[in-house]
Specification:
Elements (H helix, E strand, L loop, with lengths): L5 H4 L27 E5 L10 E3 L30 H21 L3 H18 L6 E4 L2 E6 L2 E6 L8 E6 L8 E8 L5 E8 L5 E7 L5 E16 L2 E8 L2 E9 L6 E6 L7 E5 L5 E7 L4 E7 L8 E2 L9 E6 L2 E6 L8 E6 L9 E5 L4 E8 L3 E8 L2 E8 L4 E6 L6 E4 L9 E8 L2 E9 L4 E4 L11 E9 L5 E9 L10 E4 L14 H8 L3 E5 L9 H5 L6 H17 L8 E6 L2 H11 L6 E5 L5 H5 L11 H4 L6 H10 L12 E7 L7 H21 L10 E6 L9 H6 L1
Parallel strand pairs: 32-33, 32-34, 34-35, 35-36, 36-37
Antiparallel strand pairs: 1-2, 1-13, 3-4, 4-5, 5-6, 7-8, 8-9, 9-10, 10-11, 11-12, 12-13, 14-15, 15-16, 16-17, 18-19, 19-20, 20-21, 22-23, 23-24, 24-25, 26-27, 27-28, 28-29, 30-31, 31-33
Helix pairs in contact: 3-4, 6-7
Length: 719
Amino acid sequence: SCVGLRNLLQSLSFSVRYYSKHNHLQTICLYSKIKQKKCHFLDCSGSVCAHRTVPPGSILPWRFFSCKEGTKIPSKRKQNTSITTSELLYKTLLKSEQENWNDISSKYKAITKRIKEKLEELHKYTFNSGSPRIRFGENVYFEENGCIFLSKADDVDEGNVDILFSTEEVGFSDAFIQRIRISPDQRYMAISLKSENSEEATCVIMKLGHFPAVEKVIPNVFSFEWATNDVLYYTSQKNLKCQNVFMTTFTNQKHTTLVYTEQDARFFVDVHCTKDRRFLTINSNSKTTSEVWLVDCRYPFKLPTLVQARTKGVIYHIEHRNDELYILTTYGEPAEYKLMKAPVASSGMENWQLVYALQEKTKLVDLEMFSDHCIMFLKNVGHLYLNVISFVSHSVQSIKLPTWACEFELESHPEHTTSACYFQLTSPVHPPKRFAYSFKGNNLIEQAVQEVPIITNCHTTRLLAKSKDETLVPITVFHNMNSKELHMKPLLVHVYGAYGIDLNMSFKEEKLMLIEEGWILAYCHVRGGGELGLSWHKDGCQHNKLKGLHDLKACIMLLHKLGLSQPQYTALAAASAGGVLAGALCNTDPELIRAVVLQAPFVDVLNTMMKTHLPLTTEEQEEWGNPLADEKCMKYIKSYCPYQNIKTQCYPSVFITAYENDQRIPLTGVLQYVQKLRKAALEHASKRDKKGNWIPNIILDIQATGSHCDSSWEASLNE
């Protein structure tokens, strides 16, 4: 279940090319552009109310892998339509790569079998440690293996549970649970189910009780919230866009009504509920600007009211407490997040008062509001903190969390009067551990859990690399404490660096396996990502993209200088938009790495940003620039675009996984990249007369199923 303001905050990373296969329960992202157009509010009878001219905006869904959106290829055409030359070429390339993969993959059967068995063994021990929980009074709801269970808080670890829902029983055996929302009186439960082959989710509403039963099924739903015990608001999703908000009732007279519609196709809408359930918010956001409308949950059939008309450059999100709106916003200097407040009755910007401002180079990961406290989950140069703001004593308590922790996972607290805040801490090599912050004791408590029988003598180190312009770039490094001669150990470097999104550092069984086998893992938090706040992203997008490349080079060179592996044992991993920096480094400094692993990579920035018919191209101009309107921008993109800069030289070996029906990264571009890269590598080898001249492996695995979105454990294991 998505909780707190993470739905909104993490999204400030905008149109997201992001890779997170196992974080099934995270979602949400913000995005849009500014243009004065009419949005429609409709009353509950369905008649159109007076049009109000407002600048529309949007919230983009959290894109787990990436977000370069493209059409499905090959496209379905009507009968009797001639097949174009480009389609024939595409089919020929596709068939050739599939045959090549079948031939190559057979050579790896033995090692594949060994790795799969090891990962399955690790998964048995770690599976139960990370189930997010929804605490509702004495009840705890949690999901495991496609089922939703109910238990009393004291019995949840004793196995005394009732099963409320099973994906198999409702005919969704190929889907996984993405989001859960419980109605305030716990009579209904709304669940979103998503298959691996589709971007759209299906919302199933269950009526709870002694014999839970399906009450309603709504297709193509993105976000949803209960306004009251029997009124649900939701957004519909079509072609990766959300533009309509609906209200559906479960009273004696059931009906569904369109409440809000966004007419500008560039914008995305989302709904969220304040912690005290006083207001439901309809959010419209771009990378730089926000607008929020409030639905009073006491009167769910009334029209929404505007908090603050959008002002260019100001992002804001809303929470509520004691008739005051608490506003998380970039308003004022510096342009980082601040917590402000204003009366509900006069919520305009002129009435916003500062409550708390973040320190420099601090990333706000999440925020949770309670009756007398507000908890901020923060990152500062790789370290995690809790800042607890007391509205009673008007004090702020800062708590540094364990040094091994790299990620928060906030558990759902539907009741804002709870006595504690529960969350999980994790890292790529540490399975999730539960913690609680007690408001009564003002202290942090590690929850007792069954010990996982995995021994990891893993050492966590945080380094700073000096980039080309002297900027210090954080690196997080993991290695086995028992390892000797680290300069001879294999190193796997991770990079992303786009949309203000942090590198995914949640637990993965395969990372733990690598540590146990002597590998070094390094995570480079380069500019363009969000690890050091909004300015860190701004300093690595558009005309600053090359800074991220310089950062990555500096990080790898520092690792080698410190004796952490060497180029011939170094591999680089990236996904989606991370493919831009990884691919660029292959062109500029191939001698630094021996192998590259790319997942659905974005490798042809220039050609993609020239195709305005693709769903997100116009929106993504805020990240990459507009080469069609700006010749300077075109030349700049061309200077780093991986596809455009392939040349005849010695390349590292490259392994790419792509998806045949990827709606975000068009497969055509990946196919063309692989062909061009392979040709350049072979040309370089043929020009050298040395016997035994090394030719890199350039391998493309095209998955017939799956999509650019999160997948099940089984599908991830097979990949």
